[in-house]
Amino acid sequence: MNDDVQSCEMTEEANSKQVPPKLVDYSILFFSVFSVLQKLGSDDRPEVRNSAVRTLFQTLSIHGQKLSKSMWEDCLWLYVFPMLEHVSHLASTSSRDEWQGKELGTRAGKAVHMLIHHSRNTAQKQWDETIVLVLGGIARLLRSFFSYLQQLRKFSSGKPFLFAYLMLMIGYQIPSSFSLY
Question: Residue ranges per domain, the chain?
Answer without folding.
Answer: 25-96+117-155
